[in-house]
Input
Amino acid sequence: MRPDEFFSSMEEGPLFPLYYFYGEERYLQDKAVQIVKKRREKELNQTLTIKVYSGGSTSIATIINDARTLPLLEKRKIILLKEADKISTSEQDSLLPYLQSPHQKTILILTGKETKFKGKILTAFKKKIFPAVKKNGMVMQFRNLYKNEVPGWITWMAKELGKSIGNREAYLLQELIGNQLQEVSNEMTKLAIFIGEKKEITREDIEELISNLRVDSIFELTDRIGNRERLKALISLSKLMESGEPPLKILTMIVRQFRMIMGARSLLDQGTKPEQVRKHLNIMPFIWKNLYPQTRKFSQKKLEKCFQQLWKTDLSLKTQRIPPKIVLEQLIMDLCE
Output
């Protein structure tokens, strides 16, 4: 979902008395709540306060009573019920009558994380709460973004902060931070404060603020593994570990590299031209320049074995007591074998 798609979906059409925003992308949930609030404030020409409750700890009777009761001087009200997917089945039954006939001067917004509705509580939630909210309001899912959607949001965030950022710098920031927009937003705010009166966020700004090492060290590691340069890769790993880089983040970067290598190798084996492969996989030119030679160093059979080793390493880092550095060193030895 691009910024323009998100905002057009939220800013067009009428306001509803009920909303349910759910999914893994919490940043977009929060943005959606703020858009509803701003639209209602603009409609009333007054500032509103959002009352916040938790579905895991607040009685539904309390929330319903609040939703149906308006103070003497208050014309409208917005209530946010977080963790709505944690409401017990009995509390869902208590909430259902209100959802079927909501107070028209109150906007009740429910948010939740679950997208896979398994188990008794969540199944009941989907069968009862979803239809009621859809009938009188809006249900909207915010999934984790695809990799190629994140740079657009980084550019948009920079603009909102009164700054600008180039495509290469946006891609670099994504590589360092990941695809979770809330984490990206936090770093963008830091960057805006860090550069002060400057208007453009540069690579040097990102390197200086986000990593004590030069960012090149991160790409050095993945490129050296991709080129099967065992000793150099082990040296890069030591530098990253000494700088305090989290082991799971290092593993994530390695996995990303091998996903690109496997995807590229598969297309190249089918006769696709290198530049078409790059565009199809949405790989930036400066990344592809280093990645393309690496595709020749791994057979499909070797790549399948590499992914088995990556999976085992992920399991070891999360469950075993072996020092993470030893686990990652062994992974590099295996990948570069």
Summary: The domain at 147-210 is CATH 1.10.8.60 (Helicase, Ruva Protein; domain 3). The first strand starts at residue 18 and ends at 22. The chain has three domains: 3-141, 147-210, 216-335. Residues 192 and 269 are 44 Å apart (CA to CA).
